[in-house]
Write a structure and sequence with these properties.
Its main location: membrane. By secondary structure, the protein is mostly helical. The chain is built from 10 helices and no strands. Helix 2 crosses helix 5, helix 5 packs across helix 7 and helix 7 runs antiparallel to helix 9. The longest helix is centred in the N-terminal third of the chain and has 33 residues. It is elongated.
Length: 225
Protein backbone atom coordinates (compact mmCIF):
# COMPACT_ATOMS: atom_id res chain seq x y z
CA UNK A 1 0.00 0.00 0.00
CA UNK A 2 1.52 3.37 -1.03
CA UNK A 3 1.11 6.84 0.37
CA UNK A 4 -1.64 7.80 -2.03
CA UNK A 5 -3.68 4.78 -0.98
CA UNK A 6 -3.14 5.64 2.67
CA UNK A 7 -4.30 9.21 2.11
CA UNK A 8 -7.32 8.01 0.14
CA UNK A 9 -8.30 5.64 2.97
CA UNK A 10 -7.77 8.38 5.56
CA UNK A 11 -9.83 11.04 3.80
CA UNK A 12 -12.51 8.60 2.66
CA UNK A 13 -13.24 7.25 6.13
CA UNK A 14 -16.70 8.30 7.46
CA UNK A 15 -15.10 9.17 10.80
CA UNK A 16 -13.14 11.98 9.11
CA UNK A 17 -16.29 13.73 7.87
CA UNK A 18 -18.24 14.20 11.09
CA UNK A 19 -18.00 13.62 14.80
CA UNK A 20 -15.24 14.23 17.33
CA UNK A 21 -12.61 12.54 15.13
CA UNK A 22 -13.48 14.47 11.98
CA UNK A 23 -10.79 16.42 10.17
CA UNK A 24 -12.50 19.77 10.74
CA UNK A 25 -12.93 19.12 14.45
CA UNK A 26 -9.30 18.05 14.89
CA UNK A 27 -8.08 21.10 12.98
CA UNK A 28 -10.27 23.35 15.15
CA UNK A 29 -8.84 21.76 18.32
CA UNK A 30 -5.30 22.14 16.99
CA UNK A 31 -5.79 25.79 16.08
CA UNK A 32 -7.49 26.60 19.40
CA UNK A 33 -4.60 25.12 21.39
CA UNK A 34 -2.03 26.87 19.20
CA UNK A 35 -3.83 30.22 19.44
CA UNK A 36 -4.04 29.98 23.24
CA UNK A 37 -0.32 29.27 23.50
CA UNK A 38 0.52 32.15 21.15
CA UNK A 39 -1.74 34.51 23.10
CA UNK A 40 0.00 33.82 26.41
CA UNK A 41 3.44 33.94 24.78
CA UNK A 42 2.64 37.29 23.16
CA UNK A 43 1.27 38.65 26.41
CA UNK A 44 4.53 37.79 28.17
CA UNK A 45 7.18 38.32 25.51
CA UNK A 46 6.12 41.34 23.45
CA UNK A 47 5.77 43.98 26.24
CA UNK A 48 9.01 42.74 27.82
CA UNK A 49 10.79 42.80 24.47
CA UNK A 50 9.60 46.32 23.69
CA UNK A 51 10.85 47.54 27.07
CA UNK A 52 14.24 45.82 26.72
CA UNK A 53 14.66 47.05 23.17
CA UNK A 54 13.85 50.63 24.16
CA UNK A 55 16.10 50.78 27.23
CA UNK A 56 18.86 48.58 25.77
CA UNK A 57 19.22 46.73 29.06
CA UNK A 58 19.46 42.95 28.96
CA UNK A 59 19.75 42.62 25.17
CA UNK A 60 22.70 40.24 25.35
CA UNK A 61 20.96 38.11 27.94
CA UNK A 62 17.79 37.92 25.85
CA UNK A 63 19.69 36.87 22.73
CA UNK A 64 21.63 34.17 24.56
CA UNK A 65 18.57 32.88 26.41
CA UNK A 66 16.43 32.79 23.26
CA UNK A 67 19.04 30.69 21.50
CA UNK A 68 19.31 28.28 24.41
CA UNK A 69 15.56 27.74 24.76
CA UNK A 70 15.30 26.54 21.16
CA UNK A 71 17.38 23.52 22.13
CA UNK A 72 14.95 22.46 24.86
CA UNK A 73 13.13 19.17 24.06
CA UNK A 74 9.41 19.90 23.91
CA UNK A 75 8.36 16.37 24.79
CA UNK A 76 10.65 16.47 27.81
CA UNK A 77 9.03 19.73 28.91
CA UNK A 78 5.59 18.17 28.50
CA UNK A 79 6.64 15.26 30.71
CA UNK A 80 7.98 17.66 33.33
CA UNK A 81 4.82 19.76 33.17
CA UNK A 82 2.69 16.64 33.67
CA UNK A 83 4.70 15.76 36.77
CA UNK A 84 4.34 19.29 38.16
CA UNK A 85 0.82 20.27 37.06
CA UNK A 86 -0.86 16.95 36.23
CA UNK A 87 -2.48 15.88 32.99
CA UNK A 88 -4.38 18.68 31.27
CA UNK A 89 -4.11 21.78 29.13
CA UNK A 90 -1.40 23.28 31.34
CA UNK A 91 0.94 20.37 30.65
CA UNK A 92 0.92 21.29 26.96
CA UNK A 93 0.50 25.07 27.15
CA UNK A 94 3.62 25.58 29.26
CA UNK A 95 6.01 23.97 26.74
CA UNK A 96 4.28 25.64 23.79
CA UNK A 97 4.49 29.05 25.44
CA UNK A 98 8.16 28.40 26.20
CA UNK A 99 8.64 27.55 22.52
CA UNK A 100 6.76 30.59 21.16
CA UNK A 101 8.04 33.26 23.55
CA UNK A 102 11.73 33.48 22.44
CA UNK A 103 11.15 34.45 18.78
CA UNK A 104 8.52 36.98 19.87
CA UNK A 105 10.85 38.42 22.50
CA UNK A 106 13.78 38.72 20.09
CA UNK A 107 11.56 40.21 17.38
CA UNK A 108 10.26 42.89 19.76
CA UNK A 109 13.77 43.74 20.97
CA UNK A 110 15.28 43.95 17.49
CA UNK A 111 12.30 45.78 16.06
CA UNK A 112 12.58 48.59 18.60
CA UNK A 113 16.38 48.75 18.37
CA UNK A 114 16.15 49.17 14.60
CA UNK A 115 14.07 52.31 14.96
CA UNK A 116 15.90 55.30 13.48
CA UNK A 117 17.71 57.01 16.40
CA UNK A 118 17.18 60.43 14.79
CA UNK A 119 13.43 59.83 14.75
CA UNK A 120 13.49 58.86 18.42
CA UNK A 121 15.54 61.93 19.31
CA UNK A 122 13.19 64.17 17.34
CA UNK A 123 10.20 62.71 19.16
CA UNK A 124 11.84 63.37 22.49
CA UNK A 125 12.79 66.86 21.31
CA UNK A 126 9.18 67.83 20.71
CA UNK A 127 8.27 66.86 24.25
CA UNK A 128 7.02 63.27 23.90
CA UNK A 129 7.40 61.10 26.99
CA UNK A 130 9.34 57.82 26.87
CA UNK A 131 6.06 55.93 26.84
CA UNK A 132 4.75 58.01 23.93
CA UNK A 133 7.97 57.46 21.98
CA UNK A 134 7.86 53.71 22.62
CA UNK A 135 4.21 53.26 21.68
CA UNK A 136 3.86 55.98 19.06
CA UNK A 137 7.22 55.79 17.28
CA UNK A 138 9.09 52.58 18.09
CA UNK A 139 6.14 50.19 18.09
CA UNK A 140 4.91 51.08 14.58
CA UNK A 141 8.48 50.80 13.31
CA UNK A 142 8.81 47.37 14.96
CA UNK A 143 5.62 45.95 13.41
CA UNK A 144 7.35 44.12 10.51
CA UNK A 145 9.81 42.47 12.90
CA UNK A 146 6.99 41.57 15.28
CA UNK A 147 5.02 40.06 12.42
CA UNK A 148 8.02 38.01 11.35
CA UNK A 149 8.52 36.80 14.92
CA UNK A 150 4.85 35.91 15.22
CA UNK A 151 5.05 33.96 11.96
CA UNK A 152 8.03 31.96 13.23
CA UNK A 153 6.34 31.31 16.58
CA UNK A 154 3.06 30.29 14.94
CA UNK A 155 4.66 27.77 12.60
CA UNK A 156 6.70 26.27 15.45
CA UNK A 157 3.68 25.99 17.72
CA UNK A 158 1.45 24.46 15.04
CA UNK A 159 4.12 21.89 14.20
CA UNK A 160 4.74 21.06 17.87
CA UNK A 161 1.16 21.09 19.19
CA UNK A 162 0.88 17.45 18.15
CA UNK A 163 2.43 16.63 21.55
CA UNK A 164 -0.98 17.40 23.08
CA UNK A 165 -2.02 13.88 22.09
CA UNK A 166 0.61 12.44 24.43
CA UNK A 167 -1.42 13.67 27.42
CA UNK A 168 -4.80 12.72 26.01
CA UNK A 169 -5.77 16.05 24.46
CA UNK A 170 -7.14 16.61 20.97
CA UNK A 171 -5.78 18.19 17.84
CA UNK A 172 -4.13 16.68 14.80
CA UNK A 173 -1.67 14.86 17.03
CA UNK A 174 -4.45 12.41 17.83
CA UNK A 175 -4.20 11.03 14.31
CA UNK A 176 -0.44 10.61 14.54
CA UNK A 177 -0.35 9.06 18.01
CA UNK A 178 -3.44 6.88 17.63
CA UNK A 179 -2.35 5.75 14.18
CA UNK A 180 1.04 4.66 15.47
CA UNK A 181 -0.50 2.93 18.47
CA UNK A 182 -2.87 0.88 16.30
CA UNK A 183 -0.48 0.50 13.33
CA UNK A 184 -2.98 2.36 11.19
CA UNK A 185 -0.45 4.10 8.98
CA UNK A 186 -3.12 5.72 6.82
CA UNK A 187 -4.25 7.72 9.85
CA UNK A 188 -0.65 8.52 10.85
CA UNK A 189 0.32 9.76 7.40
CA UNK A 190 -2.91 11.72 7.01
CA UNK A 191 -2.46 13.44 10.36
CA UNK A 192 1.17 14.30 9.67
CA UNK A 193 0.27 15.73 6.27
CA UNK A 194 -2.47 17.90 7.78
CA UNK A 195 0.01 19.34 10.29
CA UNK A 196 2.39 20.21 7.45
CA UNK A 197 -0.38 21.80 5.39
CA UNK A 198 -1.56 23.81 8.39
CA UNK A 199 1.97 25.11 9.01
CA UNK A 200 2.36 26.04 5.33
CA UNK A 201 -1.02 27.81 5.41
CA UNK A 202 0.17 29.83 8.42
CA UNK A 203 3.31 30.83 6.53
CA UNK A 204 1.26 32.02 3.57
CA UNK A 205 -1.19 33.88 5.80
CA UNK A 206 1.55 35.91 7.47
CA UNK A 207 3.28 36.56 4.15
CA UNK A 208 0.04 38.04 2.81
CA UNK A 209 -0.50 39.95 6.05
CA UNK A 210 2.96 41.50 5.84
CA UNK A 211 2.38 42.40 2.21
CA UNK A 212 -1.09 43.90 2.40
CA UNK A 213 -1.89 44.76 6.02
CA UNK A 214 1.12 46.83 7.00
CA UNK A 215 1.03 50.55 6.14
CA UNK A 216 2.98 51.31 2.93
CA UNK A 217 5.36 53.63 4.76
CA UNK A 218 6.42 50.92 7.19
CA UNK A 219 6.82 48.36 4.38
CA UNK A 220 9.00 50.79 2.45
CA UNK A 221 11.04 51.55 5.55
CA UNK A 222 11.87 47.85 6.01
CA UNK A 223 12.52 47.12 2.32
CA UNK A 224 16.22 46.53 1.64
CA UNK A 225 18.00 49.07 -0.57
Amino acid sequence: MNWLSWLSDFIGSPDRRSGPDSILNRIAEHLALSAEALFYASLLAIPLGLLIGYTGRGVTFVTATAGATRALPTLGLVTLAVLLAGVGDTAVLLPLVALAAPPLLVAAVEGVRDTDPDVRDAARGVGMTHRQVLLGVCLPSALPALLAGLRTATVQVIATATVAAYVGLGGLGRYVIDGLATRDYAVTVGGALLVVLLAVAAQLFFALLARYALPPGIRAQRRPD
